[in-house]
Amino acid sequence: MKAQTWRTYLYGVLLGAAAALGPVSASAQSYPSRPVSLVVPFGPGGGVDVVARALATRLSPVLGQSVVVENVPGANSVIATRRVAEAPADGHTLLLTTDFHAINAAYGDSLPYDSIKDFDFVSQLTASPLMLVASPSANLSTLADVVETAKKKPGELSFGSLGPSSPHFLAFEWWKSMADVDIVDVPYKQAGQVVTDLLGGHVDLSLIVAGNGIRYHNDGKMKALAVTGPERWPTAAEIPTFVELGYPDFALRNWYVILVPAGTPESVIEQLNAEIHKIMHEPEIVKLLLNAGLQPVTDTPQAAEALVLAEIDKYRRIIELSGAKREGQ
After folding, report:
1. Taking Cα atoms as reference points, which of 228, 219, 225, 250 lies closest to residue 239?
2. In the chain, what are the domain boundaries?
3. Is 117 within 8 Å of 298 (Cβ atoms)?
4. Omega of the bond prior to 234 within 30 degrees of 0, cis?
5. Contact 165/100 with Cβ under 8 angstroms?
6. CA 223 to chain centre
7. In CATH, which of 3.40.190.150, 3.40.50.300, 2.40.30.10, 3.20.20.70 is domain 34-128+253-322?
8. Which CATH topology does 129-236 take?
9. From 22, 132, 249, 263, which residue has the greatest number of CB atoms within 10 Å?
């Protein structure tokens, strides 16, 4: 082949390679190319919504596009989760979900999505214990008081939960099976309703977010009895754990994670993971979380997936050990 012909041929090959690689590179660099939806499977105003809005506010400038929180409540988070599972896998639709995701899978119901295979995992966001609190009118000062009263008067004490699909319900059912006590479950649709009835003395006990529980305790409006975490909560160091109080196998934490539709480009997941890690450890965000009873916990996408898999397994065991059932079963 003549030198000039060879140069022409080589130039054509290089141009073709550049053309083939160009769109991929441009696509990777252009994310996001439009506003990003951060879907929350609960109504506005709760702890999940607070975290979502704080995260969206910080993500918007670093991504260069608006990050819009969309509250899509209903069916114990299934409606929002299905919506994200069916969204385009391009990083423009995120799901901020909780342990409800694992509980739905643990019950073994027929879900309109696979809780693991239909999602890619971006990062864990938070972890937090629940706190067992008692209404002042219940005259319960310790966990031992609860056990003693429940054994003397089976079925007279009441516990306000968020229904059988909630970690609050499952955690308490698990503990009841350990303590061998009969305490009546009273299901509510909103956490705020539980708190209102605790304050009014209409229900005796509940498990609520530790940050809220210690505030009510310090104000004399409720009595904090124990926390569900494996160790004491930093802002409520005087409140013992269930582990310390004689239930060594009882430890449970709530968590929030970010998921995206399965097949989302790895570069997008890595970008989101890196930005979320930085945001969740900003001093202002850490303070906001601690005041809400939440601890920032971020990790790799692989660690987030491992967490959810382990939690599904744990809740399956809790359901089996406690005999817990969904409403209507």
Report:
1. 225
2. 34-128+253-322, 129-236
3. no
4. no
5. yes
6. 26
7. 3.40.190.150
8. D-Maltodextrin-Binding Protein; domain 2 (3.40.190)
9. 132
Least Cα distance to 276 among 265, 285, 264, 266 occurs for: 285
pLDDT in tens, the chain (329 residues): 444 443 444 334 334 433 444 443 334 458 999 999 999 999 888 889 989 999 999 999 999 999 999 999 988 899 999 999 999 999 999 999 999 999 999 998 789 999 999 999 999 999 999 999 999 999 999 999 999 999 999 999 999 998 888 899 999 999 999 999 999 999 998 888 999 999 999 999 999 988 889 999 999 999 999 999 999 988 889 999 999 999 999 999 999 999 999 999 999 999 999 999 999 999 999 999 988 888 999 999 999 999 999 999 999 999 998 787 775 55
- Domain 34-128+253-322 identical in fold to domain 129-236: yes
